[in-house]
Design goal:
Shape: elongated
Number of strands: 13
Low-confidence stretches: 5-38
Radius of gyration: 17 Å
Number of helices: 3
Oligomer: single chain
Number of domains: 1
Helix content: 10-25%
Structural class: mainly beta
Strand content: over 45%
């Protein structure tokens, strides 16, 4: 899979490109509801910018957190709205042929109970054979080691695209075993389990296609 290229003139093309997680792979089984006006060259990259990944918390997960006395809130520059919690895209680069690549986000979430705080931040969506969202896990925003936090279920993925934009919706986020263990350890519980549905994600961003070098 292609990772972000450090050079390739990305800064010159999208100077302060603002992008997640949470988006995601275009699997062969998914069908676009709208096709781009012209096909991108096979040997090209698609940049994602000026967008965000918005996660709507699953009602079951919200109820479980409430019963545990654990609150969840966004950390800047992520923000909450009626649609959910949005994480700005800082940069995304995917392959035009199959959209493998990576999308990076700013901000994150803080899980809190009493004086205990667990921060999940700086999300990366890695698009490959096993799509996943990773982030840093620490006691302050942007700190700690990077770990896979959520697996991405794309069975209900819906793809919409047009000239210079793309929208991916219906992506289900499920807690990984590692993330569940970290939260259980922090809050002294066994309520967090692998596969727990946390919510659904929608990614919407501007796009720009550039030749691969």
């Amino acid at each position: 899979m292609r990772r972000l290229r450090s050079a390739r003139g990305l800064a010159a093309v999208v100077a302060a490109a603002a992008l997640a997680a949470l988006a995601l792979t275009l699997v062969p089984a998914a069908q676009a509801t709208k096709a781009p006006p012209a096909a991108a060259p096979a040997d090209a990259d698609v940049l994602l910018y000026r967008g965000a990944t918005t996660v709507a918390l699953d009602p079951g997960a919200a109820a479980a957190l409430t019963s545990l006395g654990v609150s969840v809130a966004p950390t800047r520059p992520a923000y909450a709205s009626k649609a959910g919690i949005s994480f700005p895209i800082t940069l995304g680069v995917v392959d035009a042929a199959d959209l493998t690549g990576q999308i990076r986000h700013a901000g994150g979430l803080v899980f809190a109970k009493g004086k205990t705080r667990v921060y999940l931040s700086r999300y990366f969506i890695d698009i490959d054979d096993s799509p996943a969202l990773s982030g840093k896990v620490g006691t302050a925003p942007g700190t700690g080691d990077r770990a896979e936090l959520f697996s991405l279920d794309l069975s209900a993925l819906k793809i919409e695209s047009g000239y210079g934009w793309i929208r991916l919706s219906g992506v289900t986020l499920k807690l990984t075993a590692g993330a569940a263990a970290a939260l259980n350890g922090a809050f002294g519980t066994d309520a967090f389990t692998e596969g727990l549905v946390i919510g659904t994600a929608t990614v919407k961003a501007r796009t720009w296609t550039v030749p691969a070098s």
